Amino acid sequence: MFARPAFIISGVAAVAALGSYIFWGPPKKKKTADYCPGLVNFGNTCFLNAVLQSWSACPSVSVWLGNFLSRHVSTSTVKKYLAATILKVLRLLNNDGDCELDPFSPGEVLQALRRRGWIISPDEQDSHELFHVLTQTLEEETSRYPSVVSLFDIQALQNPCNKYQPDGVAFIRSQGKLPILPRREMDHPFRGLLASQLECYKCRYRYPVKYDLFDSLSLSFPQKYWGPLTLDQLLRHFICPETVNNVDCPGCAKILKTKDIPKSSFKKKLTIGKLPQCLCIHIQRKQWLNSNVPVKRYDHIAFSEILHMDNYVYMKANKKNLCNRNGLFGGNDDTLDSLRFGTQNQKLMMESAPVNLLRALNYDSSTMNGIFVQPPNSLNMHNIHADENHNGPEIKPRVEFTYKLASVVSHQGNECSGHFVSYRRNPVPCVKDPMGSKWLFTSDENVRKTSFMQVLNSEAYMLFYERV
């Protein structure tokens, strides 16, 4: 369990181990080119080592950290950033650094978290929880929004350095040029968007699409099912619609012509609105029985090296497959229009789809760290262009949402205790294979070669996929 505002590492034993390591240094073991360095375990820090090894096999993480530090951090203050500390460790784990000996100490990462007031309980260490600690802290460090010019600040408004919309763009909504709105410059490569929508079972009224941020997809096992499953089955279970009762329905109120909004049962549909550059999938292996007793699910989850996410993204299907697709529409549909107006108004229904799609794209349509989904070809939106305020997306050719496996975190043990290990790609890739084709098994200081078949047979707890 992780919390603030203090920091604890697994009792006195971990502190003593950290002190002795700093005093005497690491064992003298020569590093070889086809291996990666191991990481020191300070008593009970395997959960950290597994995440760091997994991140080192994800090229987009190192690229993102390097870009942020080079653009926004001066050399005099770089050591204060957790981003710099993690980037240093990731480069060393990829044999890209000055350190020639291993195992390497991740103590600097622990110290950086300590400076930010994180508590790591000595009783509950979890790699997935630590993953979110790291992404949240990095989010705080790298979130930089340009200041908004106040309309009451005449001097600031007259500043010649201000940037405005180009001619012919802003006049649609204004008599003069509009200033460019501030926006986030960089999202971390794990950041994505979930799209959810409520639809009334009675009148088919749909609420506007709601978007929620995610850094990882946590997939649960289907209830009352025990046995081997595939990753695709867990993903389909993740987006499976569910029923939400006692929801206000404006659609039913309009049909009944009443001011009192009646309650109705709604179907909640979930899809992925934006896919990240690096997709982290968490398999929830710890479950609670009806007797409040925790158990661990040992079921094997079959996953593949290549993962296609096309079936799980928002607005993927074409118009002819509208009824069977996983995508979402917003506003009133043809069923409600026919009840209200006595005709099926397909035009209204189709116009509502791109409007809701723009809301997802407006989150940050300039980022290069994510995949922004495209509307169906049948919507015929190819003449829409984006201005600098993200008021409309420039439609790009459709691409497949394909990912390649980069690393796996596995938990060995039961629901109360155990050990985290990782499987990662070899850090010496060739030009034709930038992610590497050989695999390594890492368990703290121990690193050895392994086959890809052993990776596929592992008890996956976290999967890291890179977009290709």
Automatic annotation (TrEMBL):
Keyword Signal among record annotations: no
This enzyme's EC code(s): 3.4.19.12
Annotated keywords: Hydrolase, Membrane, Protease, Thiol protease, Transmembrane, Transmembrane helix, Ubl conjugation pathway
Record carries keyword Membrane: yes
Single Gene Ontology MF annotation: cysteine-type deubiquitinase activity
Ranges for domain USP: 37-468
InterPro entries: Papain-like_cys_pep_sf, Peptidase_C19, Peptidase_C19_UCH, USP, USP_CS
Cited SUPFAM superfamilies: Cysteine proteinases (SSF54001)
Family matches, as Gene3D superfamilies: Cysteine proteinases
Annotated family: Belongs to the peptidase C19 family.
Protein name: Ubiquitin carboxyl-terminal hydrolase
